[in-house]
Amino acid sequence: MKIKSVLVAVMLITSGIVMAPAQAAQKPVLESFTFTPDVVEILGAETSVTFELIVSHPDGIETTNTYLTLTSPQNDTAGTTLTRTDSPRNASLTKVTFKGTLVLPRGIVPGVYAVSSSSVKSVLNAGYQSDSGTLVSKKIRSLVGGEAGLLVRANGDLNLSYKTFEGPSFDKTIERDFVDVEKYRNAGLPIWKVGEFFDLTKYYEAKVPSLPIQISTSTPSICTSDEKIMKFISTGECTFKVLTPKTKDYVAYSQSFTATITSARIKPQLVINKISDQTTVGLPKAVKTDAVYGALGDFAFPTSTTPSVCYVTDFYVHLLAGGRCTLTYQTIATTQFLASDVYTTSFEVLKDGQPVVVPTPTPTPTTNPVVKKTIKCVKGKKSVSKTGVSPKCPKGYKLKKK
Question: If one looks up domain 21-153 in CATH, what number appears?
Answer without folding.
Answer: 2.60.40.1930
